[in-house]
Specification:
The protein is of the alpha+beta class and 133 residues long. It is built from 4 helices and 5 strands. The strands form 2 sheets. The chain has a 3-stranded antiparallel sheet with strand order 1-5-4.
């Protein structure tokens, strides 16, 4: 019998590039270390547009928190959520720490992410999937 997944939650977020630019200007490395994992920072450094890449990742993290229904509270850290691209360029999300704990409690087995950009904005959509029982 084939495993069937169902959508259990959705989150979406929009980020203005100017917001990320301002944070970089005011807090550069402190902001980067607080919000992005070392791998995410390296990926952004090598990207065609660093701000675009960071804004997309920021939006994805916000979308994930919306789908697990918590927002930024308690022991949650920005770096509990890591968004990197697979070999085909598709964004993939992984969890650690408090976000992983909450996702497990909510029986989230997989999260798919989609990120897109315009000239000034990044938007991300996150969908949580669980096995049909």
């Amino acid at each position: 019998m084939q495993n069937i997944m169902k959508i259990v939650a959705h989150g979406i977020d929009l980020v203005d590039f100017s917001r990320i630019e301002e944070m970089l200007e005011r807090h550069e490395q402190k902001f980067l270390d607080r919000v992005f994992t070392p791998r995410e920072q390296a990926d952004a450094q090598n990207a065609r547009s660093r701000v675009e890449k960071l804004a997309g990742r920021f939006a994805a993290k916000e979308a994930v928190l919306k789908l697990i229904g918590t927002g930024w509270r308690g022991k949650i850290a920005w770096t509990d959520i890591e968004v990197i691209n697979n070999s085909l360029g598709q964004p993939q999300v992984s969890f650690t720490g408090e976000v992983e704990k909450i996702a497990n409690e909510k029986q989230v087995e997989q999260v798919t992410i989609s990120i897109t950009h315009t000239a000034n904005f990044a938007i991300a959509s996150a969908v949580a999937l669980a096995m049909v029982k």
